[in-house]
Write a structure and sequence with these properties.
It contains 13 helices and 10 strands. By secondary structure, it is of the alpha+beta class. It is elongated, with a radius of gyration of 36 Å.
């Protein structure tokens, strides 16, 4: 009996010792959370991830573990994995009952939201030219913070770049409704006007683009004589610009049209610039166009360029063809330049001269060769031997000279 009693006592003692050494789930969670935070402070992110993973294995509803693990991934610059962890955390948070959403738990949920928002901002920036990713992260940010006016506009532009006009209008309408921002409303109205113009003048614009895209082509008189389009274009107060294939097309005040490259809303790269319409001189009605092809920078012609002026069925005193070539600085012809014109008698004349900010430096006429320098004069000499200019008619890309 004494032996049995001793065995029982030993067993009870062992059970008490073992139970005293064993840790509860709650204690293990607390220990791993503390360890994870310690590793974060020490910038030992891999061990921090291991610790927070153990917490989630013990209790998937421990929201603090998701914020800690996401923080470790963000510090490792693994933002995609951080996004995945935060999404898992949000999914778990949605399953919590009201009783489980204690004050501390709600604080961690808010911390997750702030962390996710910042992470989406970074992912949006990293998306770069990947339009589909940029759209996705714009949408995610707006889901979390619908007061971001600039993102409604950015998202609309991304949709337009993808050819999704209706989605662009829809997001601008939503942004206007949520934020009340007048800029979004005006942008939407501008897009609608652009669509209306494109539909109404589709054939005219198409003809213009085909002409502008060709150095040798000629714009038909029918296009230039489209008085309804010309009237509309001349009444514009602000430019209308939209994507057209891989390039941009813009209709500007006073009837000018641009077709070419753009960057950040400004004309940049190779671009064509033209205006055309109907004029009257000495009772004769005639059509004309003026076209500039060249390099643009900072929204103006800055670099090599060629400008052509054509007149159709004009009076005798109007030169029907003029070609101007040289270097342009903010739209003004500068340095060595060449102008070739053909008068109504079919005579081809070449003028070689030097220009300073659009104003030619006068040189005496030299009859020993076929090059006719500029002579600034109002005299009534033989027009075949004089190219007259004045303060108003300076040399440059018409309609695109910076004031």
């Amino acid at each position: 009996m004494k032996k049995v009693g001793r065995i029982v006592i030993v067993m009870i003692t062992l059970i008490m010792i073992l139970s005293g050494c064993a840790k509860s789930i709650e204690e293990q969670i607390a220990e791993q959370l503390e360890l994870g935070q310690k590793y974060l402070l020490e910038e030992n992110y891999e061990e921090a991830i291991v610790a927070f993973t153990k917490v989630i294995e013990l209790e998937a509803k421990e929201i603090q573990a998701y914020t800690g693990m996401a923080s470790a991934y963000i510090q490792k610059n693994d933002r995609k994995q951080a996004e995945k962890v935060l999404n898992q955390g949000f999914a778990i948070a949605d399953t919590l009952s009201e009783e489980e959403k204690t004050e501390s738990v709600n604080q961690y949920i808010e911390e997750m939201r702030a962390m996710a928002l910042g992470n989406y901002e970074e992912l949006l920036e990293l998306a770069g030219k990947d339009a589909s990713e940029a759209i996705m992260y714009c949408e995610k940010i707006l889901e979390m913070d619908d007061s971001r006016v600039e993102l409604y506009e950015e998202l609309a532009k991304l949709y337009l770049a993808q050819g999704e006009y209706e989605k662009a209008i829809e997001i601008l309408e939503k942004g206007d409704k949520v934020t009340g921002d007048s800029g979004l409303r005006e942008y939407k109205e501008q897009l609608e006007l652009e669509r209306e113009i494109e539909e109404r003048y589709h054939e005219t614009i198409q003809n213009m683009v085909e002409y502008l895209d060709s150095l040798d082509g000629e714009l038909s008189e029918e296009v230039l004589m489209d008085e309804e389009f010309q009237k509309f274009a001349h009444e514009l107060k602000e430019p209308l610009i939209w994507k057209y294939g891989e390039k941009y097309i813009g209709i500007y005040p006073d009837g000018y049209i641009y077709y070419g490259d753009m960057k950040d809303g400004m004309r940049e790269g190779n671009g064509h610039w033209m205006a055309g319409g109907v004029r009257e001189n000495e009772g004769v009605k005639y059509s004309y166009y003026n076209k500039f092809d060249g390099i643009w920078k900072n929204d103006y012609p800055n670099g090599k360029g060629i400008q052509i002026h054509r007149v159709f069925n004009g009076p005798e005193n109007i030169v029907p063809y003029t070609r101007e070539e040289g270097t342009y600085i903010y739209g003004y012809l500068n340095g060595e330049a060449v102008i070739v014109d053909i008068n109504n008698k079919g005579i081809v004349r070449t003028f070689c001269f030097t220009v300073n900010h659009g104003k030619p430096i006068g040189i005496e006429y030299d009859s020993s060769n076929k090059e006719y320098p500029i002579i600034i004069s109002r005299a009534e000499e033989d027009y075949n031997h004089i190219f007259r200019v004045n303060e108003i008619n300076i040399f440059g890309a018409r309609g695109a000279m910076k004031e």
